[in-house]
Amino acid sequence: MDVDEFERLFRREYPRLVRSLTLVCGEREVAADVVQDAFVQAHRHWRRVAGYDDPATWVRRVAVNRALNHRRGVRRLGSFVARSGRPDRHRVEAPDIAAEVDLWRAVADLPPQQRHAVALHYLADLPLAEIAAALGIQTGTVKAHLHHARAALADRLGTPTGGSQ
Amino acid sequence: MADTTDTLRDSLRQLVQEPTTDEIDAALRSVERRTRHRGGGYALAAAVLVVVAAVTGGTFAVLGADDDPDVRIEPADTTAPVSSTGTTTPGPRRDASEVRPEVDEYVQGLPPELTRGTGIGMGDDGEPIVTVGLRADATDVAEDMWERWGTDVRIHLGYRNYPEGTPVELECPRLYTGDAIAGLEARLELDDGGIVESGADLGGRLVLTNTTDQEISLLSGPVVEGYVVAPGGSTVLGISNQAIAGLGIPYPVPAGGSIEVPVLVGTTACQPDGPAGLVPGAYEVRVRMTNESDGPGSQDVPGVTARAPLTIDE
Question: Residue range B131-145: average pLDDT?
Answer without folding.
Answer: 92
